[in-house]
Amino acid sequence: MRTISLHDGHTVDLYQSMHELPAQRHSEFQCRLVQAGGIGSTMVDVTKHFERLAQFLAAGRTEDATEELAHLHYAFNYCLEQFSPASLAFGCLVASVDGTATATKVEDDGLRQLLDRLSGWGLTQGMVEDICQDVKKNCKPS
Length: 142
Prior knowledge:
The protein is an alpha+beta fold and 142 residues long. It contains six helices and four strands, in the order ββααααββαα. The mean pLDDT is 89.
């Protein structure tokens, strides 16, 4: 476990490795990381998906275009909702807040509410990215 301190004395206990995660959370964490890497959540990501979609259509690659259209849809929705898959992955790592355990099952709405609360206490996107990268590194063989 790793503990981070936020404003006003709030503390967050985090799983430090994917191996520590409960099985359901492990799957959810992995899924969110894949989404973050392959789909994205910014207007830059949306633009990249549009460009790839146009390339696939021009090349007559309809199956690839269909998949790219789905990725575009998800990236656009994440952009509109202002939540990144990487942030949702971070939410999967939260074991407790101020000593109170978080729910075992993680769902989008619960993760978003948790992230809203933590953001209000000073959690930054930089912290989210650094912690997720550390957890990914802790899973790789030396």
